[in-house]
Here is the input.
Amino acid sequence: MRRDHTIKLIVDSTADLSNQWLQQYDISVVPLYVIMGSQTYKDNIEITPAELYRRSEEEGIIPKTAAPSPSDFYQTFEAEILAGKQILYISMSSKVSSTNQNAHIAAKEFPAGRIHIIDSMHLSASYAMLVFRAARAIEMGQSIEEVLADLEHVREKVKIEVLVDRLDYLHKGGRVNSMQHLIGNVLRVRPILNIINGEVRSVQKYRGKMDKALESIIQKISTQKNQICPNLLIIAQTVAEKMTDKVRTSILEHAYFKEVIVIEGGCVIGSHTGPNTIAISYLNV
Here is the structure.
């Protein structure tokens, strides 16, 4: 089968894909927004994660985030429609943002059947997992309808383990109350977050060093490796390169994966999780 070059794959910036992968698979990105004080920036275009953390720490600014507007989607969609493309837009989870809804609003302005939208029900590494799967399926010549059916079939099988180093950013974003924040910092409690039915949930807490918590996650993956697809594992990190290298090496030692990809969590994800966060995503068979 040959690739259908009329298919244009579009994602939003919370997929956290590198420029290399975007170029390789001809993927366009609609950025979300990061708001710092009175200034608004396009995620990963007008502000970098390092800059976001520096300003947050130095200026005491609480980062906020906002979805792309229907107009943002309209402009992106229009350019591709005028170029004769049929669009497949895979969105971040609709349970945590109006991004998917705004894309649907924009799509109504175009002829029926030209724009296909699917809710990934995921974020960052697990969202990227589905995007890679779709991009490679398109590369192999599958139709939009076949790709959509596959994504709907596998998205509940995509898992993610997110280890947050600090509670500060979750607290600033209103996801941890003040007492939990205080106790967590005193006891050095670190939450493990999963995405379940499109929603981010705290499923476990670790006390102590990040290394120990990461070892537990790696051990979980190792013991369940017979139930995990060996084709791809994705690690997302927020300015935690050295720790991520150790995690990648350890995973490759404990479990067989044909490919282990590392991506950097963008400003929108980082606004909620903070620095030194590591997320590991895989697909159950």
